[in-house]
Amino acid sequence: MIKLSEIIRVLEEYYPLAFQEDYDNSGLQVGDVNKEINSALITLDVTPEIVDEAIQNKCNLIISHHPLLFVPLKKLVYNNYTNQLLIKLIKNDIALYSLHTNLDNSHKGLNKYVAEKLELTDVKILAPKKQYLKKLVTFCPAEHSEKLREALFEAGAGHIGNYDKCSFNIEGTGTFRANEGTNPFLGEINKTYSGAEIRIETIYPSFLENKILKALFDNHPYEEIAYDIYLLDNKWNNVGAGIIGLFSNSYSEEQLLTKLKSIFRTSVIKHNKYTGRKIKQVALCTGAGVFLLDNAINSGADALITADIKYHSFIEANDKIFIADCGHYETEIFSKEIIKDILIKKIPNFALLLSKKEENPVKYFS
């Protein structure tokens, strides 16, 4: 048995809720964070069959990729599909937690996982997010600067790409005068103090701000701490929509489709016309990713692999890029494996089941 709060902590350490899109509703949908969990059922969607499967297997937690709740509830009565499922979950004391676009948008998320299945290299976020980063500037006595820097780094500051403990430091002179009623760390009351200080600059993801500031306040020696926070317009290459990467060898359009059919275990892929182009650089977005069409074209990708492509997007792509619609279910079903792998790694003795009742709601006639 393990508390639901600990399971959530592990999942959100990898995929913070701050990574999700504004329209999304990832996170705990049903349940109590203090609940003791005996086992979890992992699924793509939440359906009556999935809830029954959890009941049959005595799982008191369902972890899904797609949230059951997207819009606020006004009534909880048996008048629609969603409410019926919610009531059934509550009656059977089953918690529900979802990881949706926060799993999609992470550089270690669903798109990266599928990119590895496709054997893509030099993989990067296709459309990185802006205004997710902030810069902290503070001023500290020189002899205390190393301790403070390390505390800020431990709290999550100082990450740039695949580098950590990043900061910029300038030596200078700080002055202040402690007035009556203060308890200065340096200097004397009613006398102007002048001493060597270090200006420390470092960046951090905005969702970690409380943690960063706690580290600052807990480890800075001054009674009153001078610090500045700046919102940055920089793109954050660790968070965003889609992935772009390279095949080691070029594929023809038909060869690419054959590979995609094998990876996504589908017999049907919609695509635009063949032009004879060679496919080397590929943009990828699991689920509905045609909104990234312009990003894919502007990045120089030879192909965009995604799902739910609309009719006019095939026309828009025309001769600019090869696009392949591999199915929403087919491209996102790997989310179950990611969630399972993380929980097994971090909570090895926790009982996990991958749903066996899961099925594609879209059927094909051939």
Name a few traits of the molecule.
single chain; 6-stranded mixed β-sheet; 366 residues; 17 strands
Question: Which helices and strands occur, and which strands form pairs?
Answer:
Elements: E1 2-3, H1 4-14, E2 27-30, E3 36-37, E4 39-43, H2 48-56, E5 61-64, H3 81-91, E6 95-98, H4 101-105, H5 110-117, E7 121-130, E8 133-141, H6 145-154, E9 168-177, E10 192-205, H7 209-219, E11 227-231, E12 235-252, H8 253-264, E13 270-271, E14 278-288, H9 293-298, E15 303-307, H10 311-317, E16 322-325, H11 328-332, H12 335-346, E17 351-354
Parallel strand pairs: 4-5, 4-17, 5-6, 14-15, 15-16
Antiparallel strand pairs: 1-3, 2-6, 7-12, 8-10, 8-11, 9-10, 12-14, 13-16
What's the short version?
With 366 residues, the chain is α/β, with parallel strands linked by helices. The chain is built from twelve helices and 17 strands. The longest helix has 12 residues.
- Report the uncertain regions: none
How far apart are the first and last residues' alpha carbons, in Å?
A: 47 Å
Tell me roughly what share of residues is in helical segments. 25-40%
Total strands: the figure is 17
Instruction: Tell me, briefly, the overall form.
Output: globular
Order of helices and strands: EHEEEHEHEHHEEHEEHEEHEEHEHEHHE
Please characterize this protein's 3D structure.
The protein has 366 residues and is an alpha/beta fold. The chain is 29% helix and 31% strand. A six-stranded mixed beta sheet has the order 7-12-14-15-16-13. It has a five-stranded mixed beta sheet with strand order 2-6-5-4-17, sandwiched between helices. Strands 9-10-8-11 form a four-stranded antiparallel beta sheet. The longest helix is centred in the C-terminal third of the chain and has 12 residues, at 253-264. The protein is globular, with a radius of gyration of 25 Å.
